[in-house]
User: Fold Response regulator from Allokutzneria oryzae.
Amino acid sequence: MHVLLIDDEWLVRAGLTTMLSGAEGITVVGEAGDGAGVVELVRSTRPDVVLMDLRMPGTDGITATAQLRDLPPAVLVLTTFDTDELVRRALRAGADGFLLKDTPPADLVAAIRRAARGEPTFSPGILRKLMAQIADGDEGRRARARSALATLTQSERRVAEAVGEGLSNAEIAASQFMSVTTIKSYVSRVLVKLEVANRVQIALLVHDAK
Assistant:
């Protein structure tokens, strides 16, 4: 599993490299001090996961995340403050999840593995807080979200709502008495119908519609 580090603090990058080098099956394939040239860096290093800082000089993490939206690696944002407006903007830009920088090493490694499998990952409590803030937004956004969800079948809507609760494919499959393969197919259809890039953005729409 290949990981790319984007953070303006070299001490953070050095610490992450040292920590991840001790994790079985994980290799840091590159690093950068800001998001400039991130597309070319991703294409040359071919990471499975990008660990992305948000506040950086030059090209910030939100801009860099948006540039990677149509490329394969999962983008896992690292941030310092769980109420930062930049975090919400990063999710809109296509981030697959985010963690606080004080996340314990074992939890960070587990989060990287989940992100590589396509499962969104967040520090405890942050997703609920962000969704509550987003759901309190303007009525126009709520109406647009409800209109988008109305294009789904009942089964697709149930899967989308389960994704919005942060459930994995296996957990959704168990609750819906379906196979994991079937749930993966449903998620793929939901992504296409809602015209979103990942599971996080499905969750955003679900919560926007409330």
About this structure: The domain at 2-131 is CATH 3.40.50.2300 (Rossmann fold). Residues 79 and 100 are 5 Å apart (CA to CA).
